[in-house]
Structures are given as structure tokens and as C-alpha cells.
Amino acid sequence: MSTEHLRIVWIYPDLLSTYGDRGNMLILARRAQLRGIPVETYQVRSDQPMPDSADIYLIGGGEDGPQALAAQRLIADGGMHRAVARGAAVLTICAGYQIFGHSFSAKGATCAGLGLLDITSDRGETRAVGEVRGDIDPRLGLPPLTGFENHGGRTRLGPGATPLARVTAGIGNDGQTEGAWAGKILGTYAHGPALARNPAIADLLLRWATGADSLQPLDDTWADRLRNERLAAAGAA
Ligand code: GLN
Description:
By secondary structure, this protein is α/β, with parallel strands linked by helices. The chain is 30% helix and 33% strand. A nine-stranded mixed beta sheet has the order 2-1-3-4-11-10-9-7-8. Strands 5-6 form a two-stranded antiparallel sheet. α1 packs across α6. The longest helix has 16 residues, at 221-236.
């Protein structure tokens, strides 16, 4: 951690905030506080400089127009590249996931991304809408992924990125794999918000950010109910 507080930044809520992406920040902050970790949260709008000294960055989903604008501004700003070089943990969702790659397609044009994840996104033939479920890379030691996806893009991974999960329902990157991770950057098409439906991913980000090997367990009775209901719903789809 860079200071005595865990610093969490929500990137460009004015441009990228679909399907309750703010919930990811709330879940992270709450799960840290319940472990006695003091937290400061920041919402950095697209007309503000991106701080490079935070511990965890969150970037959410968005429509094509705001997504293209967000990418331009993040590239011009440079703060995100410096933060990743410093070893910050990052959760990227849907449009934010595509922005972290080399390029993505928006409104018929190919747009440059940040190139911080070795992925490339193009437009698919159909829109992927509905429940997505997957078995997460065993190296991460997490239970199955559950989320809601709504995207036109399809994503190819290069050798520098590892799939986050193998798809067991829905589309994700291409119907086979879902999301990607490399270093402390994690990307997924799962909304929901993703961390409310996958608190184990919130705890992974907290472990990456704090350097802790393990965290005090929390009572996840309600989260587990939600997860079980949604995982079953995806199976029935
Ligand atoms: N605009 C992107 C796409 O359609 C991302 C959509 C989203 O964030 N929900 O692929």
C-alpha cells in the first residue's frame, strides 16, 4: 500500500458506468474496512488528471462513444500507465477491459487502447447479452465467475495475457474464454456489478494491493445466495 490508507480510484464515472459499476468500489471499500484496512475512495472524472499513486483502479463499462473518448483521454493523460508501472492493481470491466487492450472497435472505427493488457477487440457478428459463467484460471484459486454481459465486441488474447476463465455459459471473449489477466491487471466482460457477484475477486484485488497472503474470512451468506441463484440461472439458460 502506498500510504496508511488503501487508495481506490474509480476511473471516469462520467463516461464509464453501466450496470452499477459503482458497486465494485463500494464492495471493495467495504470488504477492506471489515478487515480493519482504512480506505480512501476517489472518483476521477474525465476532465481531471489521473492520479498515479493509488493502490487499486476500477474502470467500468460504457457505450461506444464514451468508451472511445475515455481511451483518448487516458492515453493523453499518461497517469494510468505510470500507475501500472508502479504495480497498482486494476479491475477492468467490459468497455474498460477493451480500453486496456491494444485496440478496440467503436462506431465502425478502430480505436487505440492503452496497450496495458495484451488483448485486441473487434466487433462480433451478434451482440452478447445475458448471463455469463466460467471456471476461473485455477492459478487464481477462485470459485466460478458469474456476471451479466452486454457487449458487441469480441476479444482475442495475445501471449502476454491469460484467460480469466473458461466459459461454461454465455460468450465472454469468444464463446470459449472469458476475460484476461496479467500481473495485477484483471479484465472481464462480467457486470452485475462484478464484485458483488464475485466477492472472491474483490479479495484477490485486496490481497494484490496490500501484499497480504490471506485475509480474514467474512460472512458471505448473502453473496453466496446471490451467486448460487445466478449460477443456476445461467445453467438453465
Ligand atoms: N461498447 C463495448 C461493446 O459493445 C462495451 C460495452 C459495455 O461496456 N457494456 O463491446
